[in-house]
Amino acid sequence: MTVDGLTDVAGVRVGHATRTGDGWLTGTTVVLAPEGGAVTAVDVRGGGPGTKETDALDPRNVVQRVEAVVLTGGSAYGLDAASGVMAWLEERGRGVRVGPDPTHVVPVVPAACVFDLGRGGDFRARPDAATGRAAVEAADSTAPGTAVAEGCVGAGTGAALGVLKGGVGTASTVVSGFTVAALVVANAAGSAVDPETGMLYGELARGGRPDFPADEVVEAARRRLAEAAERNPLPPLNTTLAVVATDAVLSKAEAQKLAGTAHDGIARAVRPVHLLNDGDTVFAMATGERPLDPGQPLALNDLLAAGADVVTRAIVRAARAADPVHTPGGSWPAYRELYGE
After folding, report:
1. How far apart are CA 31 and CA 109, in angstroms?
2. Would the pTM count as exceeding 0.90?
3. Are 285 and 69 in contact (CB under 8 A)?
4. Quick one: DSSP state of residue 229?
5. Residue of 78, 77, 94 lying closest to 86 (CA atoms)
6. Residue 298 contacts by C-beta under 8 Å, 6 or more apart in sequence?
7. 175 pairs with which residues across the strands?
8. What is the dihedral angle through the alpha carbons of 232, 319, 307, 137, rounded to the nearest 10 degrees?
9. Span 286-323, pLDDT tens digits
10. Which residues face 171 on adjacent strands?
11. How far is 182 from 172, CA to CA, in rounded Å?
12. How far apart are CA 308 and CA 31, in angstroms?
């Protein structure tokens, strides 16, 4: 049975740690690879990224597999969450072997952050190593194939999609026998909604015959969004993060290509993207369960197209799953609150 999420890729598990109230509105999400790790690469296209250990993922460099990827709130401060994940992995001997003893490992834990500082009211309320540890423990405690919580959880707790509330979304598909899935933290400076129709850009991009909100609903939503924008004092410093995973056997170079084309999925769902005040970052993870056909040099194309598609759909789901949030740090209405289901 599939759950239409990142955990449809066998062996991949997801855990969230969420902090709200008393000035908090933030959290951390950990994507835990199967033991032994996954081939992982990254593509960064935003002008203001906050990342850790991404250089290790360059195909020219020595590290081939990683055990976990961390997505976190707290801007650059929140990258400390990766330290908690690193310690948890070390305790289990999971990481790059650097000595003769099984305990001689260095876990390489790539991480990327979104800007959510002060959105709960306290600028200093941000994830730390303990938050990261809680998230990886939550991932480890789940059974294989467990559905991934969406909306205002984990790294999406304080996320915003323009003036709307953002959050975590996930989606999966099967193409040519391979599973391709994405988990997204939708926290963009741009908008996910077409202001003329009230439709999510990601749904318009998928075509078909969507049901448009009534004109009076769209006009009322415009007024609400304008009011919310006036109440939010913080600058639009944002980032959309994604992890795209597949059960295919990929090289690091192929995984990097998958991460790069997955950015197209963000561009379909958010306008504009990849600005100087965005830190848009996509990781790609390949668990290596099913080889591509060596006789078909373009076999990767199906996976590349699917990666972009599931990222778009994950952003749509993040917007639809988010709840409205009102704190001393600002006010973010939810899509379904304004436009309906």
Report:
1. 10
2. yes
3. yes
4. H
5. 94
6. none
7. 178
8. 80
9. 999 999 999 998 999 999 999 999 999 999 999 999 99
10. 182
11. 6
12. 19
